[in-house]
Amino acid sequence: MSEISKEQVKHVAHLARLAITEEEAEMFTKQLSAIIDYAEQLNELDTDHVKPTTHVLDLKNVLRKDEPKQWITQEEALKNAPDKKDGQFRVPSILE
EC no. (predicted)? Predict the structure, then answer.
């Protein structure tokens, strides 16, 4: 990949609505170029026989088994509600 230019840094800063000085633009240009150079080292690795992974750890699904259960009725759910109407919880209005 080509080097990051100071104009590109200024353009991205402008898009992000960031005000940066010339010194900061120069500093960010060097830092971003160093990051790109570091990432480019990955292109030197031979990954032909490496199996793609989606996660570095071998995690399994830890969710419970989906089994049907008997739940409480609507009347039981509303039994202790301070205010209810037409089979639903009634709450104070938040819109005017």
Answer: 6.3.5.-
Q: Could you state, in order of their start, the residue ranges of all structural domains in the chain?
A: 6-44
Q: What is the DSSP letter of 50?
A: P
- Whether the CB-CB separation of 76 and 84 falls below 8 Å is answered with no
pLDDT over 80 at 55, yes or no: no
6-44 is classed CATH 1.10.20.60: yes
Full 3-state SS string of 29-84? HHHHHHHHHHHHHHHHCCCCCCCCCCCCCCCCCCCCCCCCCCCCCHHHHHCCCCCE
pLDDT for residue 50 is more than 80: yes
